[in-house]
Every structure is written in C-alpha cells, then in structure tokens.
Design a protein that fits this description.
Radius of gyration of chain A: 13 Å
Low-confidence stretches of chain A: none
Largest interface: A-B, 25 and 29 residues
Largest sheet of chain B: 7 strands, mixed
Largest sheet of chain A: 6 strands, mixed
Radius of gyration of chain B: 13 Å
Order of helices and strands of chain B: EEEEEEEEEEE
Mean pLDDT of chain A: 95
Distance between the termini of chain B: 32 Å
Number of strands of chain A: 11
Number of helices of chain B: 0
Distance between the termini of chain A: 41 Å
Strand content of chain A: over 45%
Oligomer: heterodimer
Chain lengths: 110, 114
C-alpha cells in the first residue's frame, strides 16, 4: 500500500531564506508526482508535476526533484516571501488516483 | 482560476441527514474525481467518474455515492451523515489517461455535520 510522508509538518522561516520541503513515498510504481499549494480553507493549486521518467521541474522560484529509486522528492523555494505562506502538499499518481501526504505548513515571516 | 467550480461553498447538516455536493469540470475534461480532506490531513480519494460510470473507488462506504452527467459535471451524495463526515470536499477534473497533465481542483465545499 502506497504511503506518502512529508517532513517537516510545519516550518517557519524569515523572508528571503531559501528552503526545502521533503516528500517520501513507499512504492516507486507511480505515474507522476505533483506538488500543490493550499491556502487555509481553500482548494489546491498545482505547482509542479514531475513525470516518473523525469528528474526535476522548475517554475519561477520553485524547483522540484524526483528520485524514484529512493522514493523521495524535494520542493525547493528560493528567496521566500510572505506570500509563499501556505500548506504545501505532495501527491503521487497511482492507478488513476492521487495519494497525498499530510502537507507541510509554511510560514514566511516579514 | 482553474475552471472547476463547486457548490455550495459551505454547508451545515445534522447527523443522519443526506447531502448533495456539485462540481462542474474544466472545459475539455472528461473525468471527475472526488476527495475528502479532514482538518490537518491530506485529501483522501473517494471515487472517480469517467463516461458517467464509477471508474475507481477509495476506502469509503457505500453511503458515499456519485453521478456524472453527459456534460461531465458531477455530484457527490452522502447518506446518513456522521460527525466524522465533517470535512472539506474537493473535486478535480482531468482528461482520462493523461498522466502527464496536472489535475485541476475546485475551491471545495466545507461540510459541517452537527
């Protein structure tokens, strides 16, 4: 059974700092891995999607990597801003459904 | 804006009642998936609809049921509501088989069961 884990559960950093969020999964038989952003009480916004055959994807200040062999992904956020404060969720696509981690709640202090 | 719309945005029900949640998918998307997100948790897959039929189901009891209509919009019905059904319900639309494409989520329906 696929399990997705995110560490840390919460993170507080000063504005301008570079940071890394971690995601691990137990079964490497995935189609893709996605990173989402969720603001309180809101839906999910897809940030990056990495196909199972890819190693990384970049969008602006965000870079996500995927290592299927070790069952790990990281989301790197450069030069963090207060507007980046949100919960970040990773999810793997397996058998047509997304399996999510519990998320990392990020707070960027001005 | 993802183009996926959900209604209502908030709902309060009492235990034992029934509820219907609605979702309109993004233009060009033929598959709708429903997820339940309890407070502080990641979303959990409920089921998926494609061509008006259930196309995969998570670990949810039969009192969770759904429909998909010819225009690809969808409903989630929950009977005999329990307190633990209180959660944010999210729908996502996609194109069947397109594993290289992002899923687009609606803003969710916040259900409170008292």
């Amino acid at each position: 059974k696929q399990e997705v884990t995110q560490i840390p559960a919460a993170l507080s950093v000063p504005e301008g700092e570079n940071l890394v969020l971690n995601c691990s999964f137990t079964d490497s038989a995935i189609y893709n891995l996605q990173w989402f952003r969720q603001d309180p009480g809101k839906g999910l916004t897809s940030l990056l999607l990495i196909q199972s055959s890819q190693r990384e994807q970049t969008s602006g200040r965000l870079n996500a990597s995927l290592d299927k062999s070790s069952g790990r992904s990281t989301l790197y956020i450069a030069a963090s801003q207060p507007g980046d404060s949100a919960t970040y969720l990773c999810a793997v696509l397996e058998g047509g459904k997304l399996i999510f981690g519990q998320g990392t709640e990020l707070s960027v202090k001005p | 804006e993802t183009g996926v719309t959900q209604s209502p945005t908030h709902l309060i029900k009492t235990r034992g009642q029934q509820v219907t949640l609605r979702c309109s998918s993004q233009s060009g998307h033929n598959t709708v998936s429903w997820y339940q997100q309890a407070l502080g948790q990641g979303p959990q897959f409920i089921f998926q609809y494609y061509r008006e039929e259930e196309n995969g189901r998570g670990n949810f009891p039969p009192r969770f049921s759904g429909l998909q209509f010819p225009n690809y919009s969808s409903e989630l019905n929950v009977n005999a509501l329990e307190l633990d059904d209180s959660a944010l319900y999210l729908c996502a639309s996609s194109r069947e088989g397109r594993t290289n494409e992002k899923l687009f989520f609606g803003s969710g329906t916040q259900l409170s069961v008292l």
